[in-house]
Amino acid sequence: MDRGKPRNMKRISMSLLMRFYKRRVLSALLAVSMLAHHASATDVTVTNTADSGAGSLRAAIGNAAEGDRIVFDIPGASPSTIILLSNLPTIASGVTFDNPVASPITLDRNGFGPLRYAASSMIDPGTLVLETSGAPSVDTDLDAPTGTTVFGARAVTGNLMVAGTLAPGAAATPGSIGTFKVTGDLDLTDSNVELDISSSSTSSDLIDVDGTLTVTDATLTPNFIGGQFKLGDNFKVFESTTPIVGGFENQSDTFALPNQPFLQAITDASVSGEFTFLIQDNGMNFTDVVSGSNQTAAAALLDRVRADTPTPSPSIEAKNAADALRNGTTDQAVMAIDQLSGSIYPSLIGAEIHHIQNNVESVRDRIAMQFGFDSDTLERAPWARVYGVTGEVDADEYETLGYRHRIGGMELGAGVAGNNGLSAHTFAHLATANLDIHGVDQHADIDSYRMGGAVEYVGPRFYVLGAAGAGIQNYEVRRSLSALTDSPFAESSFDGSAQYGYVELGTLVPGLAMLWTPYVALHSTRVELDSIRETGDTTFALINEGGAGDSLRSALGLSLAQSGLTPLGIATTRIRFGWMHEYLDESEAFVSAIANDGTPTESLTDRGVQAGSDFGFARVQVDMGHLFGGQFSVAYVGQANRDSFYNSLLAGIRWIL
């Protein structure tokens, strides 16, 4: 036996385990190091106005390390003035200032150099007053080079040169809105100005300069927060007591708003000493934000309504609703477009076809090869079953919304057979159902009533079965338009009809104590809907002349049947499975128009969701025991593909008379 491989595997496992623990230990050490660094950040206090020595600003700057805070706590009368006798050292990266006292701290440069910061510094000037020899300086008081970030929401007095990033607000992080007030000159040469602009509070950062604002080779980086911006909103982000000198490199750009596809921001410097962002329409069409077939048709209609191009002209309410969508988010626009689309109507046809074929399949399992054909008198076999069906169809590749279909009903039937292999059957289905389109609050209640008949011949080696029937449907549809108008729903009530046929041919192969039955079958179904007139919403209610859909499906399957004696009597189990293929169009099309207060606009074409053209199916029926003088049975009928499934459970009694 080769024992080397397990030993090697053990070594590999130990190596991986050690590597895992080593990474964990290193991660823990890194976390401890970061915590220790954070813990080591301290407040360095300025306690006097001396130029140097213990407690002085110069000593505090020299002692402060990255992350420390220089705090002014100078006793005595306020305000306090520090007069420099030489240039101050460069302030280390990450050192901030704080003045907990309301009165400002005055730093008199006395002719020496400006307050300088190292690159990567985070600078909050706080309430500093920077001057020279007791008067406002004529040169730079605070120098923030490239790589620094200047932020704050308090007033600073002095001349500032910011070549790094300027981000108004109490914190340098995005979303902190505040006013950065400068009494003096502000030079933004080569700077990047980050501005938070909020739609929810209609507020923005503001840089307020009581002096001269100079902008050279600087860049704007606006951060638009929220999705409630509206056409015509404006946000003042710069204000200066004198005309702004220069301009931003990208101030002629347009700025997209996150998740508001039809709006954009532009800059406006038309008012002297002010600089604002203005929200305007970007000219995109509704068709630019969707790609599905139905979505594109509905979006194109909204574009025509907004442009006032349909013939006849749409209502004022329709145009106002289309215009209001321009202020919405992408999700709101897509929801409105999906709601406007009347895809629920053609989808009702596809759903009814599934229901009918499901019923035909259950009848087939109830009657196929159910008689013995060995009696000298006619055999009669009535039956009654209740059933429930759940169907689910996903959105298709054209982004047509799917639906959930739930059905409850009763199946009644009766058959008669002689001893020549022939049998005849009649049956009826009475059902109530509902259908919900996914995600748009559109709902249909459906009542259906169908009758049919079937004939079967069973010979020594083959059998043939044929069935046909017809029925009617009543529909109550409620279609939400909440994303478009204030009216909650458009509603309709209409009827429909259906016809269907079925033929099956199979061979009988006994073996292994079972009856094996390979077979082929063909379903033919037609569903028609009468004309539809929606009421309720007068702006986007639809009208159409109804429609129809046809289905032709083949089935190739194998059926197995076996009977045996149980404590409850003879029990028979029938299992059937196979493959089904649709030959005709997988979905139906409806042509509608907006009712437009009785003067319809041009057409809107909607297609039903595609449920797929190929299905796998499985059927199981078990007849067992006795109940109310007959044989109790339960059954399952199911079919599925990657896009949809339909499952049906049945239970009832069959009597042999």
TrEMBL record:
> Has keyword Ion transport?
no
Q: Which domain of life is it from?
A: Bacteria
The organism named in the record is Novipirellula galeiformis
State the signal peptide span: 1-41
Q: Which UniProt keywords apply?
A: Signal
Q: What InterPro entries does this protein's entry cite?
A: Autotransporte_beta, Autotransporte_beta_dom_sf
Determine if Signal is one of this entry's keywords.
Answer: yes
**What single Pfam family name could you report for this chain, choosing any that match?**
Autotransporter
Domain Autotransporter: start-end pairs: 375-657
Question: How is this protein named in the record?
Answer: Autotransporter beta-domain protein
